[in-house]
Amino acid sequence: MSLQHSTEQRETQRDVNGHGEQEGIVVPLDLGAFRIRKQQLQEDGSIEVEVIATTDRARCPHCQRVCVKVHDPRPRRKRDLPLRGHRMVLVLLKRRFRCLMCRRSFTEPDQACGRRRRTPKRLREYLGKQASSRRVSHVAAEMQVGPRLVQSCLEEVAQVELAKRHLSLDETAVLPTPRYLGIDECARRQGHRYETILCNLDGRSVLEVSAGRTKEEVSHLLERLSDCDAVEAVSMDMSTTFREAVQLTLPRARIVADHFHVMQHVGKALKKVLARHAKKEPGKQALEGQRHLFLRNQQDLSAEEEQSRTALALAFPEIASAWQLKEALRSW
Ligand SMILES: [Zn+2]
């Protein structure tokens, strides 16, 4: 909602600006259902905006009849999105209604925050989106709110995104079954904690990330797939844990060692060959600072580098054949 040019609001714009300009700021509050009553720059630099709902009637939650009878409005202070570096406080005047039919009273619903919420919806969305790509503690400090609020906003945003993919944050929820499944592990907290990731390889999307990587933990995770018999193939590293968990829970699926992990092992083997030659003469001198020529992908080498690599390959036939096997498997 942009400001309506009532006298009252012009006056309060003057307050915000600090000098009596008639063409004041237009506060992009975008709170469709509310009218601004007052806005003031506070001594601490924050802007307080007092709003009240534009409607003068509400539906009685007890008998569902619409009533108009209003009791005293009660101010509710809420943090809102900052405006040009100013902290914003929304003072929401919530009115009490008394139903003339059933004679019970109720507070009008909170359209800025939603039911049972204390922070405006758009602030929660903003915090959640910020926390999607930054640390919760950083967002909390910057916005001067508690980390628990930011965390719950992040979960709210995540839930909406996950629901679009038929997924949820529920750690027991049934997962959609892909035809080709990918399993991998990832380290968290510098390798102090491991998590297992399930991917839909056809859709190139993550299905679930779950704590732990033991056979029991992975089996438990795989059992959540909606149809364990529908998985045709599972791609994974060469660990026995994943293999055993898949054989146990997805007996029909073919197990495929994925290219990335195979190449990781091949790379390690090639490094060993190089290290062996680099330990003794003449490799010690010839290979110093040159090992990357064999470890990198051939097409990533410059013409000059490729020339050096060919020369070294001629001098060290064992390295040359190990390298050839690596390149052949890599481009396979
Ligand atoms: Zn009623």
Quick recap:
The chain has 332 residues and is α/β, with parallel strands linked by helices. The chain is built from eleven helices and twelve strands. The chain folds into four domains: 2-113, no CATH class; 125-164, no CATH class; 180-257, Nucleotidyltransferase, domain 5, CATH 3.30.420; 260-331, no CATH class.
Number of strands: 12
Alpha carbon gyration radius: 32 Å
Quick one: biggest sheet?
A: 5 strands, mixed
What count of structural domains?
A: 4
Structural class: alpha/beta
What's the shape? elongated
Q: Number of helix segments?
A: 11
Bound ligands, named by name, code or SMILES: zinc ion
Helix proportion range: 25-40%
Cα separation of the termini: 60 Å
SSE blueprint:
Blueprint: H1 7-17, E1 34-41, E2 47-53, E3 58-59, E4 66-67, E5 70-83, E6 86-98, E7 105-107, H2 121-133, H3 136-143, H4 147-164, E8 180-188, E9 193-200, E10 205-211, H5 215-222, E11 233-236, H6 240-249, E12 254-257, H7 259-279, H8 283-286, H9 292-295, H10 303-315, H11 317-330
Parallel strand pairs: 2-6, 8-11, 11-12
Antiparallel strand pairs: 1-2, 3-4, 5-6, 6-7, 8-9, 9-10
Helix pairs in contact: 2-3, 2-4, 3-4, 5-6, 7-11, 10-11
The chain binds zinc ion.
